[in-house]
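re: ur msg from earlier - yeah i can do the cytidine-5'-triphosphate complex, just paste it... oh wait u already did. ok heres what im feeding in:
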Amino acid sequence: MNELIKMIKYFNNKKIVIGVTGSIAAYKAVDLASQLKQRGAIVDVIMTETATKFIHPLSFQAITHREVVVDLYDPSSEIGMDHLVLANQADLFIVAPATANIVSKAALGIADNALISTLLATEAPVLVCPAMDGDMFQKPQIKNNIEKLIEFGFHVLGPNEGRLASGNIGKGRLVEIYEIQNMCRYIFGIKGDYRGKNIVVTSGGTKEHIDPVRYISNNSSGKMGNFIAEAARDRGAFVQLVSSSLSAKSSAGIELKKVKTADQMLRAVELASTSADVLIMAAAVSDWKPIDVSEQKIKKDGQKEISIQMTQSSDILSTVLKPGLFKVGFAAETEDIINNASEKLNSKGLDLIVANDISDDSIGFESDYNSVTIIDKNGIAKQVDRSLKYEVANLILDEVLNLYV
Ligand code: CTP
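and the outut:
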């Protein structure tokens, strides 16, 4: 991921409290604090005494530029005594790593340190990321307590399977920092303007095989569609991402359906659309597919030329005809952009089309930027000058919401 994308302020001015407990994974919470801060959050850290044996509070203080709370009764601390300050201010409370001890105390309401007292006092959403020995995690007491936390409305993420401090492989590793960030974005999205909406997004260029090693494809990194999926999730939508892009990932609120060919994409989109409100086709779908796919690798055998007979693949946007489905297409054009795009809007029965000029090297395929014209049935709805694809995604979603009834 490049530096620019890292700087998107997903958590602008959100007040996030990170509770750190005594696990070997405590050092990872420094990275979490840093990542959240870089993305605009105001981060406070509360540590248990045991956590301070693994990592010094100064590490967090240096990153957050804010006082770290350890002791509820520290007379020298400005906020330690009044744990309600952080509890009241928080927009989100994350416990990462969360040991078996803190999980159980939170489930039973045992408030015997600054972290758990603040946690139990907050009205903010709480995300708990357990990290512990794999055998411990399997114990019914711990499983029950995690179930209880979920019943109480806490979000629980992980643990992951992998190498543990003991050297064993098991389920007990703290989830990755990017997974925690995705979960935070999902949690903040719950109250967003897309809450309750089910959106199907496609991304990437489909691949049509000629033989087992060769294929014909369209140039597309999938970034635009992937960003639309993320932006819709960040605003509260449940997203089904149908993608042939290697960089597409499942994450909190985004269900990935991997496909390769145009036919597979058609089937996946048809299935996903049965429960959807909106379909956004950002994928570069192959218009043509070979009539015969050779089962064996095609050999040169002294030939100087070969011909491949192709047939047209179905147009996905025109084929998916679910009543009430709001359909958005993309038109990547090299000339007469607005007219070509408007023609596609009508012929494919779309509500909106997003046109872009792919002859402009400063935007498009591999770029993190795009510049688009959003066209609806009445003509140009919005002109978006060169902006980060995540921002373009949000502007497209704004237009969808303006028109969606
Ligand atoms: N699309 C589709 N099914 C296809 C081909 C394209 O649903 N088999 C969708 C694309 O995802 C995009 C829109 O239709 O949202 C326009 O795609 P584009 O390739 O620009 O247009 P085509 O219809 O393929 O027309 P042409 O290639 O002739 O410009």
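cool cool. The radius of gyration is 25 Å. ping me if u need the other ligands too
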